[in-house]
Amino acid sequence: MNSNEIAVVINPGSTSTKIALYNRDGLVEDFVARHLQKDLDQFNRVTDQFEYRFEMLKDCLNAMLNGKGYSVVGIVGRGGIVKPLEGGTYRISNEFLEDARTGKYGDHASNLGSLLANKLAKHHGLDESYTVDPVSAGNIIDKAQISGVPGIERNRRGHPLNMKMTARKIADRQGIAYEDAKYVIAHLGGGISIASVEGGKITDVNDALMGMGPFSPNRAGAIPTRGIMDLCYSKPRKEVETLLSKNSGLKAYLGVDDLRDVFKLIEAGNEKARLVYDAFVYQIAKEIGAYHAAMKCKANGIIITGGIAYSDRFIADLKDYVGGLTEFFVYPGENEMEALAEGAFRVIDGKELALEY
């Protein structure tokens, strides 16, 4: 394969946009475009930032490619909150772009990924652009979608992009075909998603954004129903959504949402911080145990990934709960850029067919 053939990868965050060049061997070059909050505050919705971010990225990409002899064979952007989908690499269509642009299923920075990839592809003369395992992707089994209230389905907004790539790597390490492997995977970051991966597909996952699973550094997780009812009747809907998705969890209890700051409070003798941290680990362990049981205790491994997985102290505390269930693996970081590149090349090289939205 030609090492000069490049896939351009775009991953928008709340105040930054990552852009990178990958060939089939891995990362070639990357850059993070930072966005000042005062510049973003002029926009009412996240996707209103599209032209502002595009102009910045276009200049960045031109500088990264200039005079280096690269051939751009694909452009891929992180998929946002769209309708529930099966996992895989998708060709970005007008319908996909419309749902991302309008925020029909949720307004999130990742919605910009497909919009930016599509326009950059046209700018570079490519007919197609791609996204891989959007936030709402998963092959959730029917019985896992039942909520207990007819008309309300369990949501599936997690971190499939990183989860599936990490599962591939662990399966390779174990010498198991990815399609035959079974894992419980916990992605632990600002949001927490815990999933079962079977046959190369996410078959069950909590809603990492709102309403299910353990609490996270700044999200509420599952809450007693009566407490939710009282909250919803006491505040406007938007305030409740913001509270549960941005201002709950560690942040609400302790005023900090970085685990390193939580440890500083504990070391200073803050007993509340110790209790809340213990509850944080306990809830994550309970959720992992529940997924392991739901897989009939036959998982080939428990995999811990995401930014929190860098914490040796946290990993030791969590392993004390669940390390005896099956093999225990730690693969820190979000690894989304690599996962996007790998997904794009699988389609470009004919190893997979692009899915249609």
Structural class: alpha/beta
Helical proportion? Answer: 25-40%
Strand content: 15-25%
**What's the domain count?**
2
Question: Could you explain the architecture of this structure?
Answer:
- The chain has two domains: 5-139 and 336-348, Nucleotidyltransferase, domain 5, CATH 3.30.420; 160-332, Nucleotidyltransferase, domain 5 (2-Layer Sandwich), CATH 3.30.420.40.
- It is 39% helix and 19% strand.
- It has 357 residues and is α/β, with parallel strands linked by helices.
- The chain has a five-stranded mixed beta sheet, with helices on both faces.
- Helix 3 packs across helix 4 (111-123) and helix 9 (259-267) crosses helix 10.
Write a compact overview of the structure shown.
The protein is an alpha/beta fold.
Keywords:
357 residues; Nucleotidyltransferase, domain 5; five-stranded mixed sheet; four-stranded mixed sheet; 19% strand
Write the layout of secondary structure elements.
Layout: E1 5-12, E2 16-23, E3 26-34, H1 37-40, H2 50-65, E4 71-77, E5 89-91, H3 94-102, H4 111-123, E6 130-132, H5 160-174, E7 182-188, E8 192-198, E9 201-205, H6 225-234, H7 237-246, H8 249-254, H9 259-267, H10 271-294, E10 301-306, H11 312-322, E11 328-332, H12 336-348
Parallel strand pairs: 1-4, 7-10, 10-11
Antiparallel strand pairs: 1-2, 2-3, 5-6, 7-8, 8-9
Helix pairs in contact: 2-4, 3-4, 5-12, 9-10, 10-11
